[in-house]
Amino acid sequence: MAAIGNLAGQLMEDEEEAARRTRVFGALKTYCTELLQLIQSPKHQSPAIPALLDFLRSSSSDDLQPFFDYTLFPLLLLLDAAIACRSSEKIDSDDRHKAPDSPYVVSDIVAEGVVNCLEELLKKCRLGMLNQMVAVLKKLTHGALLSPSEATEEFREGIIKCFRALLMNLCPCSDDACSCKQITGVPALLMGEEMQSHLARPSTCRVGAEECLLAFLQSQDAAAAVGHWLSLLLKAADVEAVRGHRGSARLRIEAFLALRVLVAKVGTADALAFFLPGVVSQFTKVLYASKTMMSGAAGNLEAMDHAIRGLAEYLMIVLQDDANASGIDLPLNPTAEANSKMHHSAYKFLEELRQLPAKDQGNKEIIAEESGEEAKIKVTTDIECQNQVVDPGKGFGSFHVYRTKDWIAKTSANVQKLLTATFPQISVHPSTRLRRGLLAAIRGLLSECYYSLKESRVMLLECLCVLVVDDSEEVAASAQEFLEYLFSSNKTLNVEHDIVEILSRLIEKLPKVVLGSEESLALSHAQQLLVVLYYSGPLLVVDQLLHSPVTAARFLDVLSICLSHNSAFKGSLDKLVLARPSGYLPAVAELKAQSYSSKDYSRSRGHLSVVADIPLGYMRKLVSEVRMRDYSGEGWQSWYKRSGSGQLLRQASIAVCILNEMIFGLSDEAVKNLKQMFHKPTTRGDDFPREHPVMDRRSWEIPKDEGARGLLIDCIGRILHEYLSPELWNLPLECGSSTVESDGEVGQIPLHLFTDAAMLQQ
């Protein structure tokens, strides 16, 4: 009885499905018949097109898939007619150009409705055969070639949307050995609920698909079509930018979005490397315009965001470290040496197999090189095959690049030039969206192309340091998390080497930007230096800046220049003291013992005394000079004008500022401030992985062992002893002071003496 019940239930389900299919087919038959009549008897508009669009949107993919070919046929016929009556060059069914022959005129309303229906159909239904995909791509290619003067903005945008919908529905096949399993098929830096919701579909094609369409896209047979569409999409975006305020920002966004999907679906370095010079230079042109274009299609922020992410995604595929293992030097991880050797040798063997000549490669090898912003293609003939007969139809050679060590080095150098011209400016762009997109691009490039893009690493890390202190908490928190990950990953040694280079460059440029006229630039530079110092940790700072009295003196000279009256100390000193807690000596009372391992800290013992002795030397010398003046009864004016006295007073006053900052830096208040600045809660969880270990921020905390604490107390005691010398506090602060009046030199003493003395005592 149970079996009979199950059979009856199955029969009822089959009947319901058959009835549903009959209903769907009946509706589609009516709509398709009216579409075919439009081809024979063109009308300005037809109610069948919006009705068909509503029906497609309300129907499920399972209902539409059996009738995909039936519905596709009239739509392609109408699309072909719409393109033919708009194109200045007529194209016949065999893709050959012919003279105009007065085709049926398809109105803009009908043409735009057709592409909307085609887009919805391609979203819901999957292509099953290669010939089917090729036929649709040919029609869409002809539509993408139309200029703004030939077709409306909505029609051209609809063509690009149809192309993107076709790509989004290409899925991996069920064969585990197929090359389509090498890719994810999704843009690596994906952002946007619309694309994410569309991608939430079954990840494998139905059983019965004759050939894998993704594998075809990755093959040399599709290379010409892939390159053509890359060019068409970049050109479509560029045309809208050139049109200025008449250009369509929406079309430009769709072009970049479709390009990102195309790159993700192709997804292999072998298939995309040949087109890298042109794509990168065009993307760089878009980003370079962000400095000057703030409106119109060229200045649209969403389009620029897609351009930033699209550029990074392209580089992440072509210059991925693992994909180019034979052309770069990948360091081995000591903790997993055996696995790394196997990993490295496997990729090397795979690269050697890829470089073997193919049977149908012909007699030409195309090597793509980029010089500046232009792509130069060098064709070299294989000497051994010169006498072979070449098929004229296959004389274009292969769209393949041998990614040798020399090619990677040259490409990396050229990419570095282009990125350096754009990324630093975007890191301080007023738009949070662009800075967020740049952060995602930096994360992707440093994660996937760390060794391939070694020429660009320092620049990328500099931009990352700028974003760590970004005004947006979301951007700053994500940047801090990723920087911590870099310091805790297996790339630590390389990161520290790059950080040392950045540190040297920042310190060298610091006086120039601080003494310059741009306050925002000086602030950004100082914040960047603070980020580098904090994440480097005290041991690296000591090794690079304080390892000897000479280097320590050089570093303090730089700080002295930056703390001079010409830069930071403009305005009222009283306001300065009230605004900066570091100006108070009572901060010493806040020193507390903190938990810390003194093993590493022992390396830096003695450096604090050396560093403190340098500014203390200026104070001791000043005290000695003032004592000699008092002993000899010399007036303040003559003393100040004596060679070296004014400079010594200035040096001592700046030295006091440095010592005050040193004392405050030893307090738990300073450590607390740093933690608050560099420990912002992450507000987004989709940009960076969370499983990575977090850097130990305790490295800047005060050790608790008696030796280290005694060293700190001794150092601070010597500072206070010198600072409380009566000679420093007897310096005149104004013209009416008793010490000046007793000298009888009122009105003749330079104001610099009073300013420097006030700075010293404050």
UniProtKB/TrEMBL annotation:
SUPFAM superfamilies: ARM repeat. GO terms for cellular component: cytoplasm. Coiled coil: none annotated. Residues 217-471 form the TTI1 N-terminal TPR domain. PANTHER family: TEL2 INTERACTING PROTEIN 1 TTI1 FAMILY MEMBER, TELO2-INTERACTING PROTEIN 1 HOMOLOG. This is TTI1 N-terminal TPR domain-containing protein. It comes from Punica granatum (Pomegranate).
